[in-house]
Amino acid sequence: MSTKNPTACVLVIGNEVLSGRTQDANIRFLAVKLGELGIPVREVRVIPDIAQTIIDTVNEVRKKFTYVFTTGGIGPTHDDITSECIAAAFGVPWEPHPVAFARMEAAYKPGEFNAARQRMGTMPRGAKLIDNAMSVAPGFQMENVYVMAGVPRVMQSMFEWLAPHLEGGQKVEQRAVHATGLPEGIIADGLTAIQARYPDLDLGSYPYYRRTGNGVTLVAKGVSAADAEACIAEVTALILSLGRTPIPGEAPE
Amino acid sequence: MSTKNPTACVLVIGNEVLSGRTQDANIRFLAVKLGELGIPVREVRVIPDIAQTIIDTVNEVRKKFTYVFTTGGIGPTHDDITSECIAAAFGVPWEPHPVAFARMEAAYKPGEFNAARQRMGTMPRGAKLIDNAMSVAPGFQMENVYVMAGVPRVMQSMFEWLAPHLEGGQKVEQRAVHATGLPEGIIADGLTAIQARYPDLDLGSYPYYRRTGNGVTLVAKGVSAADAEACIAEVTALILSLGRTPIPGEAPE
Prior knowledge:
By secondary structure, chain A is an alpha/beta fold.
């Protein structure tokens, strides 16, 4: 796999997102941050706390993508099984990590580093630590798999630590234009023709619904800023030709 | 697959969620609504607007799960390719749907039912329509695959129409208790023992972080309400034994 065009898969591990108990807040964060590093997220999977599912999924996606980022399942409770599943996926022992275990032992008061907490210092053999400012328990890396917490503020702290260590790819440039009062169905045929002239760009059409009016945002993405600009200039002319008013940039949220 | 214990997979199709442009709002809605019908969501995948990826993923998950629900990619623009990919996945022609096409033709003013909009009335041969109150363009069903819009209010309208037509399973009962000032690491060992005594229940531990204090919610889920109640009674006693105050129900958001 070329590291010049790296790809990422995000694995959200946990019954709480699948049951709808929790609104996931990690997918978008990772998608945006990884995109900024030139590491586009190409797939997300949300899977339950079932050992064989975790093991099989990790082994499938770590072969397919340059990077795999997991969130969830590394806490102290019985339903936190991500860490031992990663060990099983890599076929290595799950054992106290010399640095993490010692650090956690020192951080807790005598008698409080119990069996449950010791699980958080137990990792696949060979794991490299992912530190964070929020919790004494670190995440870890095994080859191209990065194992992080599910709690958003802890995950974000881990990712901020991790980001400078990731090898990014070409930055994606994007330009946008939007128009209120423009149904997608009217501009679609013209967009198809423009997209065909810019095969290296991804021209996306995103309808929006606002109290102030419905409309559509058109976004051109690619490694060439000049191409993205030329493409959006054509879209702008198309909007004018349809008798609507093009407004540069994305529609405000 | 037993319809007594049906399962669901949600496929979110679209670059906008993978790029972080859009915060997905469909996963949680479907997870909650399907859970209420006794059709637990067992996997979610977010995949890009790439034809072969859509086709392969649909063919993989429709064999694995009782139901597959897709969102996104059925609008009029060039990046809306879900419908023709479903046809390819099922190996059937993609052609004007007699009912949907005629209905849409009648709904638009003369000359406005253009090529782009006609795509929304074009479906895999044999598709059954999924109506909705928001848009003249319907979703559709092919065997156990339900193809819906990505725009949340349209998707929700389609799902509300669809829900009475789905064969649900056993309703999942749940009981909960929470305690502020209780770290997960302290209660974890006791929870493991309780979970072991209720193998038919799913006992989940969910830490929360509030201005008013951090704590943990414990949720027991299963088909037996009596078991869930007995389990949470044991968890309540465990919390008391740890010198904390158990509060029935989930922690308020």
